[in-house]
Design a protein that fits this description.
The complex is a heterodimer of chains A (590) and B (136).
Chain A: H1 2-5, H2 13-36, H3 41-64, H4 69-80, H5 83-98, H6 106-125, E1 131-136, E2 140-145, H7 149-176, H8 180-211, H9 219-235, H10 245-254, E3 258-263, E4 268-271, H11 273-279, H12 283-286, H13 299-313, E5 318-325, E6 331-342, E7 348-357, H14 359-394, H15 399-431, E8 437-439, H16 441-450, E9 462-468, E10 473-475, H17 477-493, E11 503-511, E12 514-521, H18 551-561, E13 565-570, E14 576-583
Parallel strand pairs in A: 9-11
Antiparallel strand pairs in A: 1-2, 3-4, 3-7, 5-6, 6-7, 8-10, 11-12, 12-14, 13-14
Helix pairs in contact in A: 2-3, 2-9, 3-4, 3-5, 3-9, 5-6, 5-7, 6-7, 7-8, 8-9, 14-15, 15-18, 16-17, 17-18
Chain B: E1 7-11, H1 15-28, E2 33-37, H2 40-51, E3 60-64, H3 73-80, H4 85-90, E4 91-97, H5 102-110, E5 114-119, H6 124-135
Parallel strand pairs in B: 1-2, 1-3, 3-4, 4-5
Classes of the chains: A alpha+beta (590), B alpha/beta (136).
Chain lengths: 590, 136
């Protein structure tokens, strides 16, 4: 018997290859699954399945090399041995993968699956599995099981488990097909299972029994299609990887925060897209660079970083703010949430930091602080006056005087109101993000002037406009109104009272692709030393000023918002010229 | 030698505040001379003109606003500092402001010319303290 087993020759090596190539493939997949995938119940079932499959395929291959019918018979009986387990492990894998196993106890599953396998295996070892071999032109040897009770039971078992496996995979696919993440691989696995299943039925049932064609021993090698499809599902679609690791790269590249990883020598090892955008560098320029060199000369930030590096060595995480220098030399305030970067053994191999550009936030914070203090003066001034005046009224009996005081209260309240209205307008302007209003300057000026009817001094000033603009101009109407309103108001308020004919000339033209708006008046003018301060918040340039100090600040905010510039030219007692230049928005944004 | 009676000078660009201050002080001390200016420059020239001939026997209180156009309270104090020592010694300067800005309050504390910071509006209690100082 022993002697018979090795009566082999390689005369039929091409047939051998048909079996041994799938066998080697399956054994390779086993090595990958067993040694390189995380070991869990599902992966273990899969590993056992592919290992046994590989062995069965190899044994089938060896059978084809037999020289004698006896040898072939022995090998075909041996090769049948793994099968009762292969289909059981296949079903076990299907149960684990589709999570049907959660519906039953583990013991029940294992008993139900493997008790029959073990019993049947005893039957095979005990020689109850019977085959007959016959010579074949194409396949050298063909093994045909004999229809005995034991053999039929073995076949029945293999068929039933395979069928249940097949059904489970498709049920799972129909369950998850709407889930974008699981749709592709669940289809792949179901299809990968179906191909050998259909091939097996065709070659072993339809061909010989229905069509009378010689048995085609393709079903065993074809099962490799199934194991390869699972491999693809694992490797390409990360089917079994429920950690978000494979998603991290996407998130890292699309997030708004910069991510920077440095090694223990502070050299940059990784920077995501957002970090590169924040700093203006390409990743190629950053790789290997000492991260500290991106700091500005500011001492506080440098000290902070030294301290942070020590913290990381002690495996501590922290949050801190530093000034970073961009490629263009711009300084940006950055909030960094940093953690030590550890290898799998827990050793510190660097540091990882999430960088948020907080420059705007810092600026806004400062502006807010300044605003509150400044506003406190401007809001509290009139309020204090009102309080003082009511106190005076309390102690006053003279009706005329009381009348006078209440008129002053009225004035102060109106002043307060103006300040608040202007502050609200300023906020509105800052939030505007739509610049697609068609601006008709003629109409805009007329509408603005209508609002001044009844305004003190308006009737004395002559306002002329000259519009030399042929094409349409698009901008934001609210912003443009605010600009015209405030500058016209100033021209009225600060007209030179010693002149008989105060005037304001507004001219609008297009010069080199920019809209130019000029306001020229013959008013009291602005002292040269104040000219660069007139756009400051709460700055008032004259002693006769009754304004809030917000008008031109508002104009400046508006022009900034439009991406334009404003300049002032003036001489004391000799009129003022405001020159506004605005970029042309080419077409209406739809 | 001119009048020797105590005097209170108010410099604030807000005329309403000046009226309130004048009326409140008058209520408590009808005999005190009160002068007010909405222009710091006018105030300064008044001080240089009127006070250079005064004896040091009587004190003068100056209530000074900070946030004024053309010349701020601080700029006023810089100019005031250049006046002769006799005038300066006669003056007790108080900042009278509605500002919350700590820069203004600290400025008032650290400026050797300034005695204290008074928050608007000027109240009866404050006036009584001021008058006590004046009559010391």
């Amino acid at each position: 018997m022993q002697k018979n087993l090795f009566h082999l020759s390689f005369d039929y090596w091409e047939v051998f290859l048909l079996f041994i190539i799938p066998a080697l493939t399956d054994i390779s997949i086993f090595i990958y699954a067993f040694f390189f995938l995380p070991q869990n119940k599902r992966n273990k079932a899969f590993s056992a399945f592919v290992l046994l499959l590989g062995i069965a395929q190899a044994l089938d291959g060896i059978m084809r090399l037999s020289n004698t019918a006896e040898t072939a018979m022995e090998w075909s009986r041996i090769s049948a041995a793994p099968w009762v387990f292969i289909t059981s492990f296949g079903l076990l894998f299907a149960l684990r993968y589709t999570k049907w196993d959660r519906k039953f106890s583990n013991n029940l599953i294992l008993t139900f699956l493997f008790l029959p396998s073990i019993l049947l295996e005893f039957g095979i070892i005990g020689g109850l599995y019977e085959v007959s071999v016959e010579k074949s032109e194409l396949w050298h040897w063909i093994a045909n099981p004999k229809s005995t009770t034991a053999t039929n039971m073995i076949y029945m078992w293999n068929t039933v488990t395979s069928l249940v496996t097949f059904v489970l995979f498709w049920l799972y696919y129909f369950k998850v097909r709407k889930d974008e993440n699981r749709r592709d691989f669940s289809l792949l696995i179901a299809a990968g299972n179906t191909i050998p299943f259909v091939t097996g039925i065709t070659s072993e049932v339809v061909f010989p029994l229905v069509l009378g064609i010689e048995d085609f021993p393709i079903s065993t090698p074809a099962i490799t299609i199934f194991s390869v499809s699972i491999l693809i599902a694992i490797v390409k679609y990360k089917a079994f990887d429920y950690s978000p690791k494979h998603q991290w790269k996407n998130i890292l590249e699309t997030m708004n925060e910069g991510v920077l990883i440095v090694n223990n020598q502070d050299q940059i090892m990784y920077a995501n897209k957002a970090f590169c955008e924040q700093t203006g560098y390409e990743f190629g320029e950053l790789k290997g660079v000492i991260a500290r060199n991106l700091l500005t000369d500011e001492i506080e930030s440098k000290k902070k970083v030294e301290q942070v590096i020590k913290e990381r060595e002690d495996k501590k995480s922290s949050q801190y703010e530093i000034l970073i220098k961009t490629k263009r030399g711009q300084k940006i305030w950055t909030l960094i949430s940093g953690s030590p970067y550890l290898d799998i053994h827990g050793n510190v191999i660097g540091s990882i930091g999430i960088h948020t550009n907080i420059s705007e936030l810092k600026l806004a914070n400062n502006e807010l602080k300044l605003f509150i203090y400044k506003a406190s003066h401007d809001l509290r001034g009139p309020l204090a006056s009102i309080l003082g005046l009511t106190d005076l009224i309390h102690h006053e009996n003279d009706k005329e005087k009381i009348k006078n005081y209440s008129a002053m209260i009225d004035y102060s309240a109106k002043k307060l109101d103006t300040v608040l209205i202007n502050l609200a307008k300023n906020m509105q302007i800052k939030e505007i993000d739509r610049f697609d209003d068609e601006i008709n300057f003629g109409e805009l000026i007329n509408e603005t002037l209508k609002r001044f009817v009844g305004y003190e001094g308006f009737q004395y000033i002559s306002i002329t406009k000259e519009i030399m603009l042929e094409e349409l101009f698009f901008s934001n109407k609210l912003i443009m109104e605010s600009v015209f309103q405030n500058i016209i108001e100033n021209a009225i308020k600060y007209r030179d009272l010693s002149f008989a004919n105060p005037w304001l000339k507004i001219s609008i033209s297009k010069i080199e692709n920019r809209i130019q708006i000029v306001f020229l008046d013959n008013g009291i003018g602005i002292e040269p030393s104040f000219q660069n301060r007139v756009f400051e918040m709460y700055f008032r340039g004259t002693e006769t000023s009754k304004g809030s100090g917000l008008g031109l600040y508002l104009v400046k905010t508006a022009i900034d918002k439009l991406g334009g510039t404003i300049e002032v030219e003036s001489k004391k007692n000799n009129g003022t010229k405001f020159l506004i230049s605005l970029p042309v928005v080419k077409s209406k944004v739809i | 030698m001119k009048s020797m009676s105590p005097e209170i000078i108010i410099i604030d660009d807000d005329p309403i505040n000046n009226i309130i201050c004048t009326q409140q002080i008058k209520r408590k001390a009808p005999d005190i001379k009160i002068v007010d200016f909405i222009s710091p420059l006018h105030g300064l020239s008044y001080i240089t003109d009127e006070h250079s001939q005064r004896s040091s026997a009587s004190k003068t209180i100056l209530l000074l606003d900070i946030n004024m156009p053309v010349m701020t309270g601080w700029e006023f104090l810089d100019r005031f500092d250049t006046l002769c020592i006799d005038i300066k010694n006669n003056f007790m300067i108080y900042i009278l402001s509605s500002s919350f800005d700590p820069i203004d309050k600290n400025g008032a504390k650290t400026n050797p010319l300034v005695k204290d910071f008074i928050s608007k509006p000027l109240t009866e209690g404050v006036i009584i303290t001021l008058l006590k100082e004046l009559r010391k």
